[in-house]
Amino acid sequence: MSGFPILDLVIGLFFIFFLLSIISSSIVEIALTVTMVRAKILGEWLLRIFDTEITDAKGVKTPLGQVIMNHCALTALSPTDKAPSYIDARNFVSALLDKIFTFSTISGPKSIDEIISSIGNSTALSDELKRTFLIYATEAKDTFKAMTVKTTGAIELFRSKMENWYDSNMDRLTGTLKQQYTRRFTLLTGVIVCIALNADTIEIAKYLYNNPQARANLAIKADAAIKDSTYIKQVAGINKLAATVKDTATKQKLEVSARQLAKTVNEKVADISATKAVLQDSLPLGWNANEFNLQGWDIVFFVLSKLVGLSVTVAAIMMGAPFWFDVLNKISNVRGAGTKPKESDN
């Protein structure tokens, strides 16, 4: 409790927005997991970029992207002919180079010069990809020659450049995931959550304004939330939500299986239940039959007010839980900035 009723009201509203955003983000994560959107985006990218058809030992023509998906370095991450949700940059480069060298006059090159020749002669790459990878190989060769102290090899430098190229492409795919799926799912779930809980910003603000004790309790809960390891972990997970097209140290070798899907869904459902319990303990949510016992212009004003109130809440949810968590942190820091200084020893 800050001692300023209006400030407590604002903090309470922001905390409600934060909790609703957590619920929405958990639902979005469930949707992305069950629909395997990440794997779909990654698979489309592989088939689009590596579209050169190569002929295997059985005479079957297959796009290089599909061959990479089925490489032994990646097949442990997903079913055959399916892209995994995550591919580590090092594993990807290993699979790609293996196929490049397989369909070249020089297989298993041992030096950077042999790698340059192998890429140039490979039939698995388009001309554009050849030019790009040859530039990286040449740059690695020149960089190695210019090094006074040879702390690494030319081949390692080349692999590093290839991994950086892959990571930069995954960053762009992350933008695609966020633009085409995450934002749409968040908007849809925000609308559903707000309607289901009747999370009307106008009505919530009125309730907090007229109930000092509820207002003070919410302010206390908001202050405790920013130090709560559970909320901190949830916010960290949400921050990674749209950045998981490429693998991370915490999600290496994620297998897309029914067991994994069930585990993820169950974890998110638990998050939703816990967050909803905090919400319902803080203020009355839901629809009241008395709200609809209106006549004449009262109905019009009610509908307009409800649309505005729900729309504001949906817009707040679209800002995301990390945004509101950061806002609550800043407010807490400002409130704590006026602490009494230590007395001088003099």
Describe the structure.
Keywords: Membrane, Transmembrane, Transmembrane helix. The protein has about 350 residues and is mainly α. The protein has 2 domains: about 5-35 and about 170-335, no CATH class; about 40-165, no CATH class. It has 13 helices and 2 strands, in the order ααββααααααααααα. The chain has helices at about 5-35, 35-50, 65-70, 90-100, 110-120, 125-145, 155-195, 200-210, 210-225, 230-240, 260-280, 295-320, 320-335; strands spanning about 55, 60-65. Strands 1-2 form a two-stranded antiparallel sheet. Helix 1 (about 5-35) runs antiparallel to helix 11 (about 260-280). The chain is elongated and about 80 Å long. The chain starts with a helix and ends in a 10-residue tail after the last helix. The model is unreliable at about 245-260 and about 340-345 (pLDDT under 50).
Largest sheet: 2 strands, antiparallel
Oligomeric state as shown: single chain
What global shape is seen?
elongated
Distance between the termini: 35 Å
Mean pLDDT: 80
Q: Could you name the ranges where pLDDT drops below 50 across 5 or more consecutive residues?
A: 245-258, 338-344
Total E-strand runs: 2
In angstroms, what is the radius of gyration?
27 Å
* Proportion of beta-strand residues: under 5%
Order of strands, main sheet, comes to 1-2
Total helical elements? 13
Tally of structural domains = 2
Element-level helix/strand string? HHEEHHHHHHHHHHH
- Helical amount: 55-70%
Query: Based on helices, strands and strand pairing, what is the structural class?
Result: mainly alpha
